[in-house]
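Thread: Modeling a multi-component assembly for a lab meeting

Hi all, long-time lurker, first post. My supervisor asked me to bring a structural picture of a complex we are working on to next week's group meeting, and I have zero experience with this. I have the sequence lines for every component (1184 residues in total). Could someone generate the structure of the whole assembly? Inputs are pasted exactly as I received them:
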Amino acid sequence: MTPFGLLDWSDLVFAGFLRDPSVNEAVASAAGAFAVLGAVAALVVLTVKGWWRPLWSGWLTSLDHKRIGIMYVVLGLVMFARAIAEASVMRAQQMAALGEPGFLSAEHFGQLFTTHGTIMIFFVAMPLLTGIINFVMPLQIGARDVTFPLVNAVSLALTAAGAALLMVSLVVGRFSTGGWSGYPPFTGAAFSPGEGVDYWIWAVTLSSLGSTLTGMNFAVTIYKERCPGMHLFRMPLFTWTALCTSILMIFAMAPLTVATLMLALDRYAGFHFFTAGSGGDMMNYANLFWLFGHPEVYILILPAFGVWSEVFSTFSGKTLYGYTSLVIATMCIAVLSFTVWLHHFFTMGQAASINAVFGVATMLIGVPTGVKVYDWLLTMVRGRIRFRVPLILGCYFLATFVIGGLTGVLLANPTVDYGTHNSLFLVAHFHNMLIPGLLFGMFAAIHFWFPKAFGFRLHEGLGVLSAFLWMGGFLCAFMPLYALGLMGGMRRMAQLPEGPFGPLLAVALLGALMIAAGFAVFVLQLWWSVRHRDRLAVPHGDPWDGRTLEWALPAPPPEWNFAVLPEVDRRDPFDAAKLAGIAYALPDRYEDIEMPANSAVAPALGAAAFAVAFGLVWHIWWLVAFGLAAALAAIVARSFVTETTRTIPAAHVRQVTEGWRSIARVATPCPRRAEATGANRGRARPQQ
Amino acid sequence: MSDVTATRHPGLNLNHTDRETHDRAESVMFGFWVFMMSDLVLFAVLFATYAAQSVHGIAGGPAPAEIFELKSTLWQTLVLLTSSFTMGLAALALKYRDDRRRLVLWLLVTAALGGTFLYLEGADWLRMARDHGAVPQVSGFLSIFYALTGTHFLHVSAAMVWIGVMLVQIGRFGLKPEVKLRVMRLAILWHLLDVVWIGIFTFVFLFGVVQ
Amino acid sequence: MRLIPCLPVLLAASLAGPAVAETGTQAGFLWAAGPIAEAQRAHFLSIIGWMSVVIVPLFVALPVVLWRYRAGGPGAFRPDWGNSPLGEAVLWGVPALLVAVLGWNLWTETLRMDPYAPLGPDPLVIDVVTWNWGFVFVHGAAGVAEVDRLTIPAGRPVTLRMTSDSVMQSVFIPRLAGQLYAMPGMVTELNLAADGPGTFTGRNSQYNGPGFATQSFDVIALPAGEYDARIAQLAAMEGTLDAAGFDALKGDDAARPQGFGAVSDGFLAEIVGRYADPRMAGMVH
Ligand code: HEM
Ligand SMILES: [Cu+2]
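Re: Modeling a multi-component assembly
Sure thing. I ran the full set together rather than chain by chain. Output:
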């Protein structure tokens, strides 16, 4: 064995193309080339523009929760681009492969749905929601940062290391074909030798470690860092959902970590957790995976529910309807989500009564979910609804989410599930929940809080255009899949039989392309808005007539968020302050503020984690040992660092705060009808 | 002063005037408890798997009763319990004494007992492997047996490294608040590992032998 | 009123209906051809009906609310209105009642439709062994086996006893029976019946590698007489299906025989035994 373990030149994706110059290999090589060129381009830009230093000291080593949040979102968006491209290729393949093999090999198709699913869940959805919670939650509870800023940065580094592993797998070696759920024994060494499943295992493990830490950090922050007067029942709903999601993360990620590590022991060391024979139990994997997997879908959706709550309330200019109901419903969902995992394998042959119990438990979740939908609707009742991008997406979410809810209730019935499990009907169902629910929620959040993060709005017209492309695209891409599933189309099929599937698959392909186009327009919108940021600037910080504490800050907020920690005595405190005319009052005293100092520990740990994972995938044992030693050294060394904070002098805080507030106070308040125009500089005229 | 005592974290001996560090201690200790909780979930999942595999996963290999030897396990348990006791003495020394000699002494004793535990457990594994061919590759039951006890073993080893680092830090920084907080958290981890071991002793070894 | 939530189904029916008539085999339980699929369809439609109680109001109310309360619209502005006791009661009460009804239905249907329960006295027992990528069906009573094709007598209850000689698979005959996993070292049972003669597609629905997409089989339901003729035809075939014969079958995709004229005793148990814990063997029948 060489010093590079199993690694060999022939593992490069381009070597595959040279060996076999087929369309299939060309697609793989093109993807690999794209990844390499993208990385090179990024390096060149950083070097030419001289951005390395600001990137390092301003971002990579920063412990500021806002910057960490933004980096999470950027990571999610980059990975989203890849996963969407893969979805389109899959759709094109199925279109081309009616009753014939098509242009992709079955093996390649297997990699595509596996990477698509894995990326979308662990490296798009999780980073997006983690990033947005990171940015918003401390602001909403009136805190200066999360409780453990360094742990926060470490979580990001671990997640990024996992994502990097996935990107490397485009160029070096092949990825797993076992799907995002990675069921053994198919993913065991006997049926999937080679590096693919190992890539999957370590990418997912890194991500789940990062999420466990994140969950603890957020939960502790929400318990301990709320500003005076911010009782639990005064927290904004988004923070409530962040809390529930964090608690779910604390409990749900461990089963996944155990499952993937056991699978790794089976593969690397010949253990028998999930093998066929020798006392292995593949059904245990299904239990462990879904013990994580079902709470996971609520980890994904709850923050989006929080976003929708803020969006409906803000863009109706009205308090949330049924706040208490919404909180209780959120908690019910969180608790119930641990009692239903078996519905992912009603068809595993257990007793009918067991299926019935889990089926009923699943259906119970429909109650709080239904309550939420109507609470949101009633939030708009007696409001003044403004059709900004987040609200447009929100209304679409309400309409399509109930269809997803309906199909969810259908699938909760074992009787129906026997006929729809593993079919495209199921694929349609979960995309129906994940795209209008989670993904659109995240894009609504980006639209909503972008001005807060960067000081300028996103171009409204382009936003509407991309929203409509997404909305139309989703309908085309996934409604036909319900039908296809009922017609006998299964998931994960590299080719469908000839017959009635063609027309519906064509519509689905069109839909996928529309979604991709919507994303392109979104990127265009970002670019345009950055170019014209002066026109879109909202320095006073309150572009949407916001109601919660984060809108009381300038845009972008200073590193320390609040010059003086706020005190609140009600829900929607900023709205009340504006109505009372005391929103921009100056604090009467300033103090020195201690903020966490930058630290290189997180990037170091991320790099070490990547080295360990890559070494494990390719059996490069010295690299594994080196990475582990480096990680341990970094942690121990950090514990000897005595200067972990940086003091910001009161005078500086005063200067910044008064500079902003004195301008904001005299700024012309913008009426809501001019919200989407240049007249909106971030000072809102209260609505009476 | 009374006001400060009221919010003081039990077991901490922070300077009475240092209000901010007390508050900080609250979040740090709470955070660590949450961390321990997620660690317990991990062990719970391993226990659940053990419950299933130790019955259904024997696959013609040795059964629990054939390979376990209660005497050795009992010694391991006694040693670990004692180490928990000495770790408790270390925590008391941290709270009530300003000199570090006792704290260091009890930490050293704890580490020695921890090392003894690791040695005994390792020897026990070797015995099973040697006398019964009971290695994890034999059956589902042995896979989870080694995974469960091995995870505990790794935790104890990590805690030993932690003790080492703390000894250096006590020497270098003295008993400043950060160091105290770290010792407190170390103690929590140590006691928790003891609790987990009691679970292992009961559910794995005692039940295994009884069956 | 019930139309809106039924859209996906209607879409399916309208687009797929003619095509199905053409090909005849490929379809789901909406085109039921046996009692199980029939019951699935009825249950499916009844849930959609019940669920429209909460879904239809939303579809009606959403446009109305958006219109009435748009900025500049006719609706009154009451920014502090965030609660109404009656509203809460309805909001929680209606879904709770609905879930009670649906939950009851779920419970009874699930127990009634237990895949392990035979659909009548004296079911025909057929053993199924799957592998990567194929199926063999053993007609135990007749001592014959067929490959990638399942012939059953129309109208008679059938019990499939299934195991896998590779990874986890899911044997799925949408128009007749739904699906259940076949797993190495274990036996699961799926009961089904066909109302009348016909050809239906069955397949594995659990991804198991490159051959997955084409791992399907035809289910052919024949009138009793023709069924017997088919069995006789199988009995005339060469070869014996035993462990060795089976491994040869797995190993050679190119020359896959259509069937075996003889089957060794306890063939299913032998395949199961490859993976099962010998101490537990008594528990797997
Ligand atoms: C944006 C547009 C999207 C398109 C066009 C799309 C398309 C697809 C396609 C074609 C498949 C394969 C279906 C099959 O197995 O036959 C798939 C699977 C999947 N998608 Fe998406 N998807 C999209 C977004 C998402 C999002 C946002 C998520 C999650 C956050 C997601 C999660 C998944 C998962 C988990 C799978 C299953 C992978 C597996 O079988 O293991 N997708 N998607
Ligand atoms: Cu679920």
